[in-house]
Design brief:
The protein has 551 residues and is α+β, with helices and mostly antiparallel strands. The protein has helices at residues 2-6, 24-40, 63-66, 68-76, 78-93, 100-112, 118-191, 197-210, 214-227, 323-327, and strands at 8-9, 18-19, 22-23, 44-49, 52-58, 230-235, 241-246, 252-257, 262-266, 271-273, 281-286, 292-297, 302-306, 315-320, 334-337, 343-348, 352-357, 374-381, 386-393, 403-408, 427-429, 435-439, 445-449, 455-459, 465-471, 476-482, 500-501, 518-521, 547-550. Among the domains are: 2-95, no CATH class; 150-230, no CATH class. The two termini are 83 Å apart.
Length: 551
């Protein structure tokens, strides 16, 4: 019965049947008579009248499931009703059908045409007419295209010949331009090497990508060898870097530049702060937790930057200024925190080692003075209230050999030195102040236990290891290598010592000092032996322009 089908509808895309209002003009005379009879039985309700369109609909949606005949009819016509819901939605939008939806509409029109309203049938006819017009237009365009292609066939052959000659000539000219540009970029990469590490590397990469010329390959390999262990460049293209200090967790860095500016960097955030450090800095230091920054100026001033507070501001604590600076304006040679960050020391030429409490700036103990005629080049906090110093003769050049001394911080007196008058080169002390490492001129690396009376814990044997060193922008980078290591052309073996390999001229003896000081590490096991030794100092006169992290 078509009437029952007209009384049920689906929403577009839905699967739940709902009541549908059937208008009198859409139902026709016979179906409206049946609808009136069903309304008298209260299965349907009639709405409208008084100028409003009259329609009939189910008395309640529950009849869709309760009225067995209606339920069976809905189940049989479910697909048709769902499609008609989509069709009516398209009719309301005025969007004509095309493609598969139009083909489906034609099938339903052939099967259930009388069940559709005149508007719906007209909508399908319009969609079919538009499709026919589109097909005719497509055929006409195909005919025009064939004629056009046929007319261009001869011209195409001629154009291919001409374009082939043009492409060949253009490729040849482009190759020449790329090779010339590659050489220029490689030259610029070398020129920018001392200005910006990142920019120089980018120019080298651009040179190689432009054309793989020998100069470009050389520039790229040079950048690779320099940056292959660099994880990230954190400070670049500024004034040359004089000094760098890092917190114990490796997240904060203080950078001092030759311009006197000092900045603080927080890795991973690209954050740059002054951290309470004014300009004119010569040496910078950072407490292990990174919360206190220290700087020593070129005029002898020493100050701290503490913070940040709740507002993100840093508090400046002046440690050395005023009369002390006017009396001795020489710049400090070393600046260092202890392993807790509660104390800070400065090695002041002409005076000695000064120690302060970092939070308050209060002096601790007296001035730790070196012997007459000597000055303190480096200092470290030792165990049990001691301070270790490496002293050099007054007026000695930077990088000169020195001696090791130890002071008692409480009374400022020097302990009887266990090192005697042995000359000392590069020295480093562990963060807790319990272990000291120094290296000798004959290639021996010594480890000292500083707890109690300092004693030698072990050393490398020069017969088993050779030092391979190279000058860098800040220090000699030295490593222990097997005695059979051969030197490359850029680092010929010296005639003066079979255990050294460096960059001095072939046949010349190894220098006793180097203006670019070394930091040395050994990979060999230590054996008890403590001979005298000497080695160059750790500080340098030349400096890099960038700070980078290595894995």
């Amino acid at each position: 019965m078509r009437l029952l089908t007209e009384l049920v509808r689906f929403l577009p895309g839905g699967d739940v049947p709902m009541r549908n209002a059937l208008r009198q003009e859409e139902a026709g005379e016979e179906r409206w008579r049946i609808a009136t009879a069903l309304a008298q039985r209260r299965l349907l309700v009639l709405r409208g009248g008084s100028g409003e369109p009259v329609s009939a609909e189910l008395a309640h949606e529950a009849l869709i499931g309760a009225w067995k005949r209606l339920e069976e009819r809905v189940r049989q016509d479910r697909k048709f009703l769902a499609w008609r819901a989509d069709l009516r939605h398209d009719v309301e939008r005025g969007q004509l059908l095309e493609g598969e939806p139009l083909a489906t509409a034609e099938r339903w029109l052939a099967q259930r045409g009388p069940a559709l309203t005149g508007t719906e049938r007209h909508f399908i006819d319009r969609s079919v007419g538009r499709r026919a017009a589109q097909e005719e237009l497509a055929k006409r365009r195909v005919r025009q295209k064939r004629g056009f292609i046929g007319g261009l066939a001869v011209l195409t052959v001629l154009a291919l010949v001409a374009s082939g000659l043009f492409v060949w000539r253009n490729a040849e000219l482009g190759g020449q331009l790329r090779r010339a540009a590659s050489q220029q970029l490689a030259t610029q990469a070398e020129q920018l090497d001392d200005v910006s590490v990142v920019t120089s590397a980018l120019f080298a990469g651009a040179a190689y990508r432009t054309a793989q010329e020998p100069a470009a390959r050389t520039a790229l390999i040079r950048q690779y060898l320099r940056l292959r262990h660099v994880e990230r460049v954190v400070w670049d293209d500024h004034a040359p870097v004089r000094d760098v200090a890092m917190s114990e967790d490796g997240r904060r860095i203080n950078v001092g530049m030759t311009s006197g500016d000092a900045v603080g960097l927080t890795l991973g955030t690209d954050e740059v702060r002054d951290r309470g450090l004014p300009s004119g800095s010569r040496i910078v230091a950072l407490s292990p937790d990174g919360r206190i920054s220290a700087r020593a100026s070129v005029s002898g001033k020493v100050s701290l930057g503490i913070g940040p507070d709740a507002d993100g501001r840093w508090r400046t604590v002046v440690l050395r200024d005023g009369d002390a600076v006017r009396a001795n304006a020489r710049a400090a040679t070393d600046l260092r925190f202890d392993d807790t960050g509660r104390r800070v020391l400065a090695a002041q030429p002409g005076e000695g080692v000064l120690v302060w409490e970092s939070q308050t700036g209060r002096r601790l103990g007296g001035t730790l003075r070196p012997p007459k005629g000597w000055q303190t080049a480096q200092a470290w906090f030792g165990p049990q209230g001691t301070v270790i110093g490496r002293i050099t003769q007054e007026g000695a050049a930077e990088g000169a050999q020195g001696r090791l001394v130890r002071w008692n911080l409480a009374d400022g007196l020097r302990d009887p030195s266990p090192w005697g008058t042995d000359l000392t080169g590069p020295v480093t002390v562990s963060g807790d102040g319990r272990t000291l490492v120094r290296c000798t001129a004959d290639g021996m690396l010594q480890s000292w236990d500083l707890t109690g009376t300092p004693r030698c814990a072990g050393s490398t044997a020069p017969g088993n290891w050779a030092w391979s060193a190279r000058c860098t922008c800040r220090a000699w980078t030295a490593r222990a290598v097997s005695s059979s290591t051969r030197c490359s052309a850029s680092a010929p073996r010296s005639a003066g010592s079979g255990s050294w390999c460096s960059t001095w001229p072939r046949g010349a003896p190894p220098p006793s000092t180097c203006p670019h000081p070394p930091s040395r590490t050994s990979r060999s096991p230590v054996t008890p032996s403590c001979p005298p030794w000497r080695s160059p100092d750790h500080r340098a006169s030349s400096v890099p322009r960038s700070v980078s992290g290595r894995r």
